[in-house]
């Protein structure tokens, strides 16, 4: 059994400090049998950060987009009529009620907290609790998945710290911000999502950077070799703690050197 006290002690030993802005990517299962489940982990994270700290989690809803890998996997094997019927049933994104998908139980718990704030993007939202939640979450532009008008850029501005809790660098959202910055003209593509601006359900299409996380594990391994990543365990989970601006800067340089122009 992994207790709240043990989680707080493990987080402190790793380097989580009072007052930090902390972006957490997590796997509850990897931590072990936690007394109190996801709620206890969130409580421990907030306890380690203290009242002056801000906890941020990704609460993405890729199932809300028909241009996502999640959607393609869901409709695989459907007939054209079945695909059309499925798309017609997809509900619009609502920051207050739409559950996360593929993010895990810890972000979903944060999303449902009474005091949590959640960004407005219908596909790549974030939720946050703490004194800096508003400045991080507000202003997430609908045509900017994870770039300069998203919470990732605000996290960069605050000098946030990233915690990978039982997950690998392939889940490191910070690297996506580097995709916007490594070249003046990164590849772009079209995205679509279901929204409702008060006039009923509709599809919203926009063009943005073509996000590609296929090399994130390689980037992360190279970044870790620079020696700036703190490595330990939280409960039974392997954990890594590092500066978000450091990660973005390193990834931007790596992409510029290794990705095709």
Describe the structure.
- With 261 residues, this protein is of the alpha+beta class.
- It has one domain (4-61, 104-184, 213-258).
- It is built from eleven helices and nine strands.
- The chain has helices at 4-14, 28-31, 37-49, 69-75, 80-89, 105-112, 133-137, 151-158, 174-181, 216-224, 244-258, and strands at 21-26, 54-58, 117-118, 126-129, 161-165, 188-196, 201-209, 230-234, 237-243.
- The strands form two sheets. The protein has a seven-stranded mixed beta sheet with strand order 3-4-2-1-5-9-8, with helices on both faces. The protein has a two-stranded antiparallel ribbon with strand order 6-7.
- β3 and β4 form a beta hairpin.
- α1 crosses α3 (37-49) and α9 packs across α11.
Short descriptors:
alpha+beta, 7-stranded mixed sheet, 261 residues
Cα(first) to Cα(last) distance is 50 Å
> How are the strands ordered across the major sheet?
3-4-2-1-5-9-8
Indicate the overall shape: globular
| Uncertain segments | none
What is the element string, with H for helices and E for strands? HEHHEHHHEEHHEHEEHEEH
Largest sheet: 7 strands, mixed
**Beta-sheet strand percentage?**
15-25%
Overall mean pLDDT stands at: 96
* Number of H/I helices: 11
Whole-number tally of structural domains: 1
Q: Helical proportion?
A: 25-40%
Q: Rounded to an integer, what's the Rg over CA atoms?
A: 18 Å
Beta strands, count: 9
> What structural class should be given to the helix and strand makeup?
alpha+beta
């Amino acid at each position: 059994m992994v207790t709240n006290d043990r989680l707080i002690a493990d987080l402190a030993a790793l380097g989580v400090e009072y007052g930090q802005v902390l972006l957490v990517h997590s796997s509850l299962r990897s931590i072990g049998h936690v007394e109190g489940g996801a709620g206890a982990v969130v409580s421990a994270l907030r306890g380690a950060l203290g009242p002056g700290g801000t906890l941020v989690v990704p609460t993405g809803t890729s199932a809300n987009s028909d241009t996502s890998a999640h959607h393609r996997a869901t409709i695989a094997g459907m007939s054209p009529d079945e695909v059309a019927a499925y798309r017609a049933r997809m509900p619009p994104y609502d920051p207050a009620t739409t559950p996360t998908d593929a993010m895990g139980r810890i972000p979903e718990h944060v999303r449902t907290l009474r005091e949590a704030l959640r960004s407005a993007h219908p596909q790549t939202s974030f939720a946050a609790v703490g004194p800096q939640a508003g400045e991080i979450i507000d202003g997430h532009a609908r045509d900017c998945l994870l770039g300069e008008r998203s919470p990732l850029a605000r996290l960069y501005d605050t000098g946030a710290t990233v915690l990978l809790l039982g997950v690998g660098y392939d889940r490191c959202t910070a690297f996506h911000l580097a995709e916007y910055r490594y070249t003046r003209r990164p590849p772009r593509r079209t995205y679509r999502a279901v929204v409702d601006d008060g006039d009923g359900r509709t599809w919203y299409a926009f063009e943005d950077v073509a996000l590609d996380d296929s090399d994130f594990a390689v980037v992360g391994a190279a970044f870790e070799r620079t020696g700036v990543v703190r490595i330990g365990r939280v409960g039974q989970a392997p954990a890594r703690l590092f500066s978000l601006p450091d990660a973005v800067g390193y990834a931007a340089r790596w992409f510029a050197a290794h990705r095709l122009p």
